[in-house]
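chain below, 528 aa
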Amino acid sequence: MMRIFKRPSYEAKSEADVGQLIRVVIPRQYRSLELQNASLVELIANALDAKPSLIEINLDRVKGVLEVTDNGAGMDKTDFIKYHNVVATTKGKGSTIGFAGQGAKLALNFCLKVVTETWSTSYEGYSEWQLRGNEAPYQIYDRQTPSLNHFGTKVMLYLDDKNKGFYTEDSIKQVISEHYFPLLDSELLKAYTGESPILSDSRTTLKIYKSIYKKGLKFIVNGKEVLKEPVQNVLNRKKEVSIAVYKKPKANGFFGLAKDGLPESLQGIAICTYGKVIERTWFKKEPRDKQAITGWIEAPYLIEAVTTDKCNFMKGNKLWEGFFRKTQAEFAKWLEEIGLSEKLLERKPDLSNLEREINSILKNLPELGLALFGSKAKADVAIRNKDGDPRKQENGIQLIPVGEEGGGGGGGVPIYPGPELGQAPTIESGNDTSAIIKPRTIRGNIRLGQEENPDSEKEARFDGETVIINVSHPAYKRAEKDKLVLNYHQVKSIALSLIEFNLDNDPEPSYQKAFELSQKFFTLWGKQ
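prediction:
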């Protein structure tokens, strides 16, 4: 039975007009989640930051009380006071997945009160916190923990009458599974505890570059452990993935193909930090048999790129963009290996002139073009060499000049994208020249492709390298009847897909920016 202590050691109330912050500003950051579930996700994140071996969640629907308890490090007195500061956090940038007290702050919107107990090596105490009008008064009681009898933190939400029935045991398990599934997967959990999970049939193992939860980790809901069957058990194809930054492994995981279809919650590649699923993504690809493709990548260093609601990565963040491009390339390569890559149509009519036209516009539109030219493409080049074989500029191989015969790679050698990238040939097509083949990296030009995707409402999509026009779209079908109308339709579709991609990576997107980019693009197009 909880003991009640009457005399608080410390009384205060949060900043003036805190009601506006708690009711409007903070919840606005969690639009992707219901407020009650966002609070639970945050409470678990805060518990994980304390590096516990046990997180216990108990629900009493009759009394309307939800408890989240961990056996982690607990808080000292200074941090416990900061915990109640609505506009502050005790967390260092890029070091944790939670924001101190954020779960409790969200809960004030639908609770009569929030009681928090904490016990660390230097402090023991508890607090009671309410939202009253535009104030959030709280009382702290030192040297007292009414129900917590070990190191750690316990947060008790006393739900108001309207929300007493919101949580159920099943809904709590669903939230944990959706947002923290790697920590429930008995095999993947080993990556976080330092045991190294087995990720393939060849019994190879994968190791996160450092163990995160060294003491192990269990989730208990109403007295029962929540544990999932390893997702690897339902896969028939797997590929280990390692993403390096400056030649040092920073992210590890796998891509997998299931024997049968997967539940929607497991479809796509889960990008995680510290065991929290931040996003599930297809890396802007449209693979066949999507319902059977899953995966998991743990990237602790991306914690610096996570949004406040922990359900996305920050737009325009360089860490995220660099990771995305590298992993997208690995994903595309794997899809091709297993025969499930997006199947583009043969380009009819030939799109080379249109490619040339679009790339010319983008080079004169830095607001849009610079955001798109970070990608690289590999292409074979034929470099003149008297000892090489006779080569023609055709079949996707470009022939380039060199300063000296046979030089083939000295500084300042001009690299000209070949016809397949929409650029003029370096010599007349058909001329035989002695040359050797070497792979080169080409930057800067987007490519065009076509697909039949009748299930998509998009006229075109851009994956960072290629704009893929949907020839099954009703607007394309209608435009196809007139060559001039079709040309305009394709230009418009390409422009919109590029603008959408640009705004997806803009930290501050707006309709005004989209409108201005569209105007500038078509002004340049009209002048050509």
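Residues 175-337 form one domain. The CA atoms of residues 221 and 489 lie 55 Å apart.
thats it, cya
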